[in-house]
């Protein structure tokens, strides 16, 4: 798995807690990001949006993954 696939999986496999729900949209909100922009950034097929290193680090801290 390459780094872009790993970022995609981290975002989409996010578990926000038993009663809170999860997923990439919930993770984006917890990170303070616009969910649509975040979904584009973690999509490895997206050419116009890229995940920055700071975004990846924050995603790992917030998700615990």
User: What summary fits the major beta sheet?
Assistant: none
Number of separate helices: 4
Q: What structural class results from the helix and strand content?
A: mainly alpha
Percent of sequence in beta strands: under 5%
Q: How many extended strands?
A: 0
Termini Cα gap: 15 Å
Alpha-carbon Rg, integer:
11 Å
Note the overall shape: globular
**H/E element sequence:** HHHH
What is the overall pLDDT average? Answer: 88
Question: Which blocks of ≥5 consecutive residues have pLDDT under 50?
Answer: none
Helical percent range? 55-70%
Describe this structure in words.
The protein is globular. By secondary structure, the protein is an all-alpha fold. Helix 2 packs across helix 3 and helix 2 packs across helix 4. The protein starts with a helix and ends with a helix. 57% of the residues lie in helices and 0% in strands.
Mind sketching the topology for me?
Layout: H1 3-12, H2 24-31, H3 35-42, H4 53-63
Helix pairs in contact: 2-3, 2-4
